[in-house]
Amino acid sequence: MEVGGGEQPHGSVIWLHGLGADGHDFEPIVPELGLGEQVGLRFVFPHAPVRPVTINGGMSMRAWYDVMSLDRSGPQDETGIRESSATLTALIEREHERGVPYQHIVLAGFSQGGAIAMHTAMRFPMKLAGLMSLSSWMPLESTIDREVAQEPKSQPRDLPVLMAHGTFDPMLPIAAGQHARELMEKIGFKVQWHEYPMAHAVCPEEIGEIRDWLLNIYS
After folding, report:
1. Can you list the positions of beta strands (E) in 54-100?
2. What is the pLDDT of residue 138?
3. Most buried residue, 25, 36, 51, 194, by CB count within 10 Å?
4. CATH of the structural domain 2-48+78-217, one choice from 3.40.50.1820, 1.10.8.60, 3.30.499.10, 3.40.50.300
5. Is residue 111 annotated as a catalytic residue, yes or no?
C-alpha cells in the first residue's frame, strides 16, 4: 500500500514491517511525522508473504523469512532472506521506473523488516537516499566481507544511516542492534544511533528523530 506523494513525489520511502504484522502497521506513522506536503514523499508499505515460522511453532504468518532461532549464531533462512531482498530490490526499481531517482529512495524497516532493509541497502550498487533500521539485527553476517566489504559495486559509504533500538527490548535485545551498528561502521558506513527506554516498539521521541532525519535528507 502507499501513502502520500501525489503524482510526482520528490522521493520514496519503502518501509518494511516486522514479523507477524503487515503493510498497514506503520501507515499511521506518516501523519505523526508531520512532514506535510512540502517534502512530497511517497511512503510504500509492502506486505510480506504468509509463511510458516519455526520459532512460533510453525504457525503461518506474514514474515520476510523464517526465523529458526533467536541466537545470532544459530541457523538462518538464507533462501527467505535473499528472496525478500530481491522483492525489495524490485520495489526500488519500480519506484525508479515511476520517475523517482535512486538517490531519492530511502529503505526503512522495523525488526525483521529492518534486517531486510539493511541486507538490501548495503548490497545495492546505486546510491540511495538513506537507510533506516529500527529495533533490528544484521542477517547473514558471514557474507558481509565477501558481498559488501570487498565488493566495489556495493552501496557508497556516505549513505545516511539511522538506527535505533529500545533498551528494554525483550524480543531483540539491544546488543543485537548494537552489533549490527558495529558491523556497518566496520566496513565504512557512518551510523546515526539512538537508544530509547522502550521495549520492541517505536516511541514518540523516536518519531521526532525520524522526522528530522528525513527532513535533512530531503532538504
Report:
1. 59-62
2. 97
3. 25
4. 3.40.50.1820
5. yes
